[in-house]
Amino acid sequence: MTNTIAATRLTILLPAGRLPLAIMEKANELARKYQLEIYLSTLQNLRLMGIREEDLPTIRAELAALGAQFKGPGKFPVPRVCIGVRDCSMGIGDPERISALILERFKDREKTKQKFKIAISGCTLSCSGVLTTDIGIMTTRKGFDLYVGGKGGTSPKVGRRILRDLDEQGVVAAVAELVDFHDAHTETKQRMAKLLDHPDFPYKEAV
User: Fold this and answer.
1) Total domains present in the chain
2) What is the DSSP letter of 157?
3) I want to staple 71 with a disulfide (CB 3.0 to 4.6 A). Which of 11, 56, 84, 197 is the partner?
4) pTM for this one?
5) What's the domain range around 60?
6) Which CATH number belongs to the domain containing residue 139 in this structure?
7) CA 67 – CA 61 distance, rounded (Å)
8) Omega into 157 within 30° of 0, i.e. cis?
9) Cα dist. 40→45, 46, 91, 131 in Å?
10) Does a structural domain hold residue 202?
11) What CA–CA distance (Å, rounded) separates 199 from 15?
12) Pair (25, 99) in one structural domain
């Protein structure tokens, strides 16, 4: 009979997909020391895989000392973004800035119900998956368009555009209203696509 060792994982949140060098170095050091795998998730986070349960508190503490934040129940989702105008010739906006404004707005929120994701693009090509995400924010030359209810999976769905030509504060305010609606009409976890036809949904389709 072969004995198996219980293992777990730890997901480090990386706002705008940016990996601080100090955290990268520490993750590499810990992976070597504890023989872990490093996985870069599709949500632009860094995950340490194969952690022994008894090693988790030490690993977590060493990363937290460098300012690392971790995924956990009720944690507000970090938006997935493209690299934007600073690093892309097609970019016309700065999705990292919009992501930072959203995270600042929700940083003190004690708990957010699962399950939804946010994506932000720096142009209409939407490389970050704006059209197939629960809340999608697309940069245009007139401002920001907001999409809701997109998803992938076995039954993919393109999001519904509900607002056009928003400014930055308009984006944050609309996201806040959608998050509050999601929380108020979800028992445990729910994709936004299933709430679009709710009679109290706050927005109609914007053509």
Assistant:
1) 2
2) B
3) 11
4) 0.90
5) 7-70
6) 3.30.413.10
7) 10
8) no
9) 6, 5, 24, 22
10) no
11) 34
12) no
